[in-house]
P-loop containing nucleoside triphosphate hydrolase protein (Lophium mytilinum), 1453 residues
Amino acid sequence: METRTNTSDGTSVVAGLPNEPFRLRSYQTEMVEASLKENIIVAMDTGSGKTHIALARTEAALETSDPSQIVWFLAPTKALCHQQYDVFCSNLPGFGIQFLSGEDDVDRWTDQSIWNDVLENVRIVISTHAVLLDALSHGFVKLNRLSLLIFDEAHHCTKDHPANQIMQKFYLPCKFSSVSDSIPRILGLSASPVINAKADGLETIEKNLDATTKTPKLHRSELIRFVHKPQLSTVTYCALDSKEFAKPDSFQRLCKIIGSLDIMQDPCVRQLVEQMEAGDPQARRRLEKTLVRLDTYCQKQLNSTAAKIADILNALGPWSADWFLRKCTLKFEKLIESSDPLLTPYSDTEKQYLHAILKKAVAGSTPVPSPIGRYCTPKVQALIDALVAQSSTNFRGIIFAEQRATVAVLGQLLSEHPRTRDVFRIGTFVGTSTSSKRKMNLADLAEPRLQQQVLEDFREGDRNLIIATSVLEEGIDISSCHLVIDFDPPKNLKAFVQRRGRARKEASKYIILTPSVLSVGTASNPWESLEEKMKEDYMNDLRNVKAAEEMETIEENSDLALRIATTSALVDLHNASQHLHHFCAVLQSNSSIDMRPQFSFKNDEYDMIRAHVTLPASVDASVRSSSSSKCWLTERNAKRDACLQAYKALYAAGLINDNLLPLGQEPEGTPQFNIPDKRPSLILVKPMVNPWSWVLSQRASTSENTEGAESLKESRNSDVNVTTYYRTLVCLSSADEQSVKLIVITQFPLPQIPEVILYWNVTKRYVISTKLLKSALYQEKEIEFFKATTFRLLHSIFGSRMPAERHDFVALFVPVEDGSSPKATQLRHWLQMTEKDSPTVDALTFLSQHQGQEAGLIQIHGNSRLFILRDIMTENNDTELHLTVSRFPKRRDFLHPENPRDQINEAYSSLLKLEAKDCIVHRLPASVSIFALFIPSLLNRYEVHMLAERLRTTILAPVSFDPTDLSIIVRAITASSTNEPDYQRLEFLGDCILKLCTSINLMASHLMWPEGYLTAEKGRTTSNGFLARATMQLGLERFIITKGFTGSKWKPPYEADVTSSQVEGSSKKVERSSKLIADVMESLIGASYVVGGLPNALSCLRTLLPTEDWKPLEESNQVLFDAVPKEPLPRHLAVVDSITGYTFTKKHLMLEALTHPSFVGPPEIASSSYQRLEFLGDAVLDYIISNHVFAHNPELSHETMHSIRSAMVNAAFLAFMSFENTIPEEQANITIDPITNARRPEEPSIVQRALWQYLRHSSPQTPQLQKAALIRHKASRDAVLSALREDCKYPWYLFARTEAEKFFSDIVESMLGAIYIDSHGDILACEGFIRKMGIMDCLERVLRDSVDCLHPKERLGHMAVSDTVVYKRVDTGDQGRYYCQVEVGGREIGGVVGGLKRLNAETEAAWWAVKILEEGEDTDMEGGVAVVESEASESEFEDAQEAMDEDQEMEET
């Protein structure tokens, strides 16, 4: 890179940056804006970007003119028209574009209906001037149908040229008539507005085009940096007379044959003789004339060919002349053999006659051995010397020659010459003949045909040297060159300017070959005077650059600055530019988009300079532009001043903080609770609260309202102390057993819990149902009975862990028969009957004394094992009693089913036989004992619901949770480590709700914030660290259930223990993952949404995140709607309504949703870029997909939901669907019968219009990316559609092979964001759009058919189990791609896979590995090491990678 000027502020003005992104430079924007105000002719150097000006001006015309009007682009040649057609199709794919030329038989379109059909749905026409002139002349096209006329190579608009006739015959008369307001605007483009040296040449062109020539003020910085004038030099050679060369043998023979020809044997003469003999009266006169003039067609062909060879001999040497003659002969012979249509005008006798002469000249002649030494001219030697001297690795060059034959011969000569054949990859390019109906000349046969592919190869670098005629001087877009050589000098100043403009690489050279002064025949060479003009023009350019460099070194002092008093931060003229560039850089992470500020300069009447700066399209329009506060001597200081004023505006708008840095770049301190934002961490928190501690603190007193409570006061004195107790009836039932009832008595109301299913074994279930009873007043004496009853119940099962002296139970259990309140007398009798002298009785005694009563549990003397009596049997004549029993369970957890792999547990399903004499029977009925066995499970359900109730009535009190919603709160606070239904499904839903509400709230609260700010702030608000800190501030972490119920070592909860644990827990700490704590907050948000929709979820957000300013959604939606500008209103996007299936109220939203960050346009069509809308649309899409997935019945697991959402919102999938969602548009096909001139019936062509075709951008790379992506889409379309419709697995691997740029998916999401704002937050309208896109159909198919959407990398990780999966990078030498090899447990699986990015290669490598492992074949792909090309951009799979990262975090937690 060449540095031209080192400025005093430490920056360098450079001559160009390699691979820098393109956008309209300030002088190009200046020209577009000028064209919107008046008719202009843009006069700029070749390669300075006139085509980009034409495209930008065309886009402006299309957006502001009536949809029925046309932009007509005119170019002087068919080749140039073809090139510009390709350019317009690539850059404006959403508009109907028609290319008209003589090959379309336009001259036969003699009916208005044909023209109407051709121009139907067409907004841009590209043609030569003659086509439009003819259409206007016959009235098929009216001038008022045109909104803009673009004249490429406008210097042709003189004299009788069709361009001038269009203006003189139609435009100017219309302008001076009463309908002057209906004429189109004029835009001329030219690198050489002055064709000749006449003083009034420029004025003539301006008058003819009714336009003013505009040459943009080339600002000094751009003059130094962008415009690369090539070094001009001349190379002289000694021009020799042709007599000094020996004619090649073949040419000598040809000349000799021509000189000795008998004219009477000429086919034309013989034909005239035959006609004369046949009596034709005119034949004699024609024969006499022919014999005198010797001008038969064959004679002319031979003479012209000989003359052409003589010219080649003189210019190039003997080898060239010999090769040319042999090439013509060979080509003519092949044309005869193939009956080529080119020879149709020749008669058979003429063909044979000419062929015989050529064959005779070549056959037997001695070929010239090689094009070296004396076999080529000094001029050729000079050319070769110049080429070799300038050759380099990245060489690109053009050689201009005047004659087409010279181009052909030079191409062959350089391809064979030993000094050039291995250095240059040569192509030739010539113009087309003006008449396609004349006979083919022999001398033309060796000339190359027009080769469009040669230009493509040159642009792609497959060729590095082109030899061309003047056709390549103007218009045709080719790559910038290092070297341009004029083999033949330019004829005029225009040709000089055009050719010089082709050499616009850094350090390029422009060489003109000229004969030396002493050369023969050069004394009066007219080239000398023209050469002086050219040198003067070149030196003027150098002087301008030098003057610019000197001016920019002038020092100007100023104390302008921005100082912040609170922080003492300072920005002044010396660092304002760096600060402003830094601000722009942080707005966008995509390096392919140029986010630098753009500058323009204006000079006042005193030549003082004022600078204007424009920031990227992602910056709000109100602060996007600023100007320097005053005028300056230098552009450098004017630019600094503009930067400072822009920075002041950004600070005033709140986009810069008090440290004068972009928001979000404040110095980070130690985070609260030492919890980082972006990574999970283990932190110390207080343990979960004991649910009994809270309810004990809520005990009722006798002063509480006891209205309606059952009272025992009737049997008591009025001064007896009684206490209010709350009662709950609990019923235990099973399919084949009689239900058992207990009443739970507590000093506090228990929450209502759902039915509790208890898993006795694999097949048998018990169900506990509860019913709240009225509260009751009990005396202390009665409470003692209840405690004794409770002890008796629990001690029968859990006696080993129950001290006899402790009766301070937090809950009392009393058996009842009918559900009525227990009476003291009944309880006293119950206690006596179940105990008496011992809690057990001899089995024989029990059977003899208590027949008909329910037996208690059975126990063998001396053994603690318990059994359940199933049957009594007698044996040996009824003398022996045997008991059929089943074992009583030892396990205590009945809330969770047994592992199905254990089958039916024999411990309490199989039957055993015991001798009655060896057994004792518990007095407590077995059914009651079974109920007692279930009390730990029952209390666990009460405990978690009491915890949820406490959370509901304290922290979550502002949220609309009813007592009936406790179950969903329980699930929201239950971690996956509990083996219970956990929070993960609700967290999945809450995560998208949080992101949606955050996105909407941020958008509405910060209307001027760019997307980068919004994304950073959303990331902070939704980060695990932020949520975890908020959770701890609320104390919410103490409500998280992390331990599952096992019943192991269970003992009854005692009041004293609860009280002491509450004191101990105030200082004790436990470790928890910050992600776990954050996830519970998101799950509560999801629970609030399930209960009450988005309003309730927003209420939950206000409660859990009170530091954020949460506005009502309706208010935010209205703010966003009202903020949409009213202007400009796009007039060209009506088709977008059809594509989206939505009609916009505020049309500007469509424009913004389709504006790429690179777009630079005039104020008339300006808008912000789509990034803010894409930010919102991303959240809306996540919400819609997540909501549908969550609501699916049956419920899906968290992992399944996550994989489905990743599949439906990943960039590759959205890009694919954007290609698929199209609407058809008809374009007429016109065919005219050559005989009748009647129109033949033809089916119209169908053009598919898609959303991405209307993307507004200013990047020349974007059309190529769109075209390439469309080609890849068509190649993979059938396979992807088949997989989406039929496969049982989502085709991640197919998407890994595509390369759709992120902007394809971005505009889907930006359009969704636009619809959300325009519809005031109507989710149904948004869902209608994504259904129109086909996304909902795919989602419904995935859900309906249970399509497995797990990413291949995740699947491989699951299949590897404990083995380590490694994606090892492989160096193949291809620096442009990423290659990897999968290893599972140290063993290579599959082969080497390549992709454009790492994730794409790893995705496909994982897919291959999974395929191999599933099929049980450890073989290389396709029988060896396979390199499978995968060409997707990394952003396509960022959602899938995020899913895998989250799953990894869950595993770590």
